[in-house]
Description:
By secondary structure, this protein is of the alpha/beta class. Helix content is 39%, strand content 16%.
Amino acid sequence: MTIIDGKKISQEIQTEVKTAVMKMKSEKGFVPGLAVILVGENPASQAYVKSKGKACEELGIYSITERVPATVSETELLSMVERFNNDTKIHGILVQLPLPKHIDEQKVIEAISPTKDVDGFHPVSIGKMMIGIDTFYSATPFGIIELLKRCKIDPSGKHVVVVGRSNIVGKPIANMLIQKKEWANAIVTIAHTATKDISYYTKQADILIAAIGRPKAITKEMVKPGAVVIDVGINRIEDATTKTGTRLVGDVDFENVKEIASAITPVPGGVGPMTIAMLMMNTLKAAGGRV
């Protein structure tokens, strides 16, 4: 059984991005630029935005973070997006989600120029992904593909079962894996809340991707021996043995499932670190660079 070390792989990717950024600076005289807009004071969003800023600093990427109160109007937010659309120093724009209820998230996403959509959420990016045209891919699914690739786990011809159908993970990873290309070409099944017996499908999976948002929902009995298990979930549960009184767990019962899986991602330290690494890769790509 292999524990897939997402932290190590993400560091390898970030080293590659840093080298490409240095090359861009020396050959073209500029570096990639990322603008992040943070609305309100959601603790999880604040932590994530801080991590993005730190990654940019370490990789030599120019970054700016605009923090605005939760009371900001939709018009003001759209105006900020347009300002960054027109800023030649900025190659990627990311509006941290979720947004307050009085703001139309989809309207804001669609306001971002598709050429700067490093989050991969714009309908143009989604449409290109669907029909197999190279584009900006949503960072978490992109990270899953990269984990499989770097661990030499080829999904071609394999039955992949995705549990979850969110626009951020479930739908895009399913679409990326069915494409007729390298590190894809899989037979994909999506299970979700309307699935009467999820285990019927998960037990058929050669590669199982759990993106449900429920702690330890995937148990040992639901997994085929020898399957590759990719756990996308990040859930905080109570744990009196820790200083904070809580700890992070995934959507998979890791301790028991690892006994029968051929490879598995831990939480934390699996898919999570890949998300920022792939965002950095998308930002490099938006500026015309490649690793």
